[in-house]
Design goal:
42% strand; 10% helix; five-stranded mixed sheet; Neuraminidase
């Protein structure tokens, strides 16, 4: 029962991953393509001083339809809006238990028409919460059946993509049900379901169960109706592409070598996973043993030209394979500069630019980085 409670807590108290098909592309080598270098040209966030620029705990980034920067701060239970130059503009949401107020929140997405979606606990409702990005007005909250969605990605019009994890004991044994689907804002049922899976449940492998809730899959969506899904794995690196009708249109298979974590990285991963469980209110857990290998893919983004940015999981320097919309490898992108926390960087990329933040910042405080191609 403790294991069941632990999995339930992971779902309930989140704060935030063969054969070729037609259209498949296999990345056999990267030696023939150029390397593009990205540099952080500006940042938002300070250690001490003006509270409007001190970040509590960043759990999500996005550009708004107007090009401003939205920062989900789960410690402050709000979304802050900054200009592209880093000037604070306004706030959406606030901490509280009333209608439209927020508590534990994570996973930010903004649809093409300006619906802002996040998940977690707000207004005493555990589920999906929607706001008008432009006005900040609360549009409503939709309770989950005990399991708030994760991996929110804004999509075309008023659509968004999300991952749901549910627990099923109807057969007499504990099953974890995972689905990834596209919803219209305000709808309770999905318009398109891409993946339905029942991953194995091993009570002795709590690290994998925690990672399934927090990560499990990397998901991206564009404003043309396409959805991209990359299962987090240490054995295969594949991006599955779905068209506007929900049918699979192709796969990108990357030839990436698995990378062993160092002893220091294993201990850091163990501390991060333990801290996540403790934050969920469960300190009585079996020992957590992280996978000795890093995931082959740890990020997936789509830029304004429809190019697919696949973040490699192995390198400590943030590195992407960038593919054209038809699946051809165009170039490799690497972040330049001295960033000892680069292995914990998470990115948001669209037509407005490239944003990033460190989950485990080396300086001891978080910043939002704005990156551009080096000249």
């Amino acid at each position: 029962m403790k294991i069941l409670a632990a999995i339930a807590l992971m779902v309930l108290f989140i704060s935030c991953g063969g054969e070729e098909t037609a259209g498949s592309v296999t990345d056999e080598t990267t030696s023939a393509v150029p390397t593009v270098y990205l540099e952080a040209v500006d940042s938002i966030g300070i250690e001490m001083g003006d509270s409007l620029y001190v970040m509590g705990a960043i759990e999500g980034l996005s550009y708004g339809p107007d090009g401003n920067i939205a920062v989900l701060d789960c410690a402050l239970a709000c979304i802050r809006i900054y200009s592209p130059a880093g000037e604070y503009l306004r706030q959406i949401g606030r901490r509280g238990n009333g209608p439209g107020e927020l508590q534990s929140i994570a996973f930010l997405g903004i649809s093409e028409d300006g619906h802002l979606i996040l998940t977690g606990d707000g207004g005493e409702i555990l589920g999906v919460h929607q706001f008008d990005y432009y006005t900040g007005e609360w549009l409503g909250s939709m309770p989950s059946l005990g399991t708030p969605a994760t991996c929110i990605e804004g999509a075309e019009d008023s659509f968004y993509v999300r991952k749901d994890i549910n627990l099923d004991t109807s057969s007499g044994e504990l099953l974890i049900l995972v689905s990834i689907a596209k919803y219209a804002c305000g709808d309770e049922e999905p318009r398109i379901t891409y993946i339905e899976d029942t991953p194995p449940f091993d009570p002795a492998d709590m690290a994998s169960q925690i990672e399934l809730v927090w990560y499990g899959y990397d998901v991206a969506a564009d404003f043309s109706g396409n959805t991209y899904i990359a299962p987090r794995s240490t054995e295969e690196a594949v991006v599955i592409i779905y068209g506007p009708d929900g049918e699979e249109t192709g796969r990108i298979e990357l030839d990436l070598e698995p990378v062993l974590r160092t002893e220091e990285e294993i201990e850091m991963e163990r501390l991060i996973l333990t801290a996540k469980m403790s934050a969920m209110g469960n300190d009585q857990m079996p020992p957590i043993e992280p996978d000795p290998y890093k995931p082959l893919i740890r990020g997936l983004e789509i830029d304004g030209e429809g190019n697919i940015w696949v973040q490699h999981g192995g390198p400590n320097v943030p590195t992407f394979s960038v593919y054209g919309s038809s699946g051809e490898l165009m170039y490799i992108a690497e972040v330049t500069g001295d960033h000892p926390d680069g292995n914990s960087w998470r990115f948001y990329i669209d037509g407005n630019g490239i944003l990033a933040y460190a989950e485990d910042p080396a300086d001891g405080y978080q910043k939002v980085y704005m990156l551009e191609e080096s000249q």
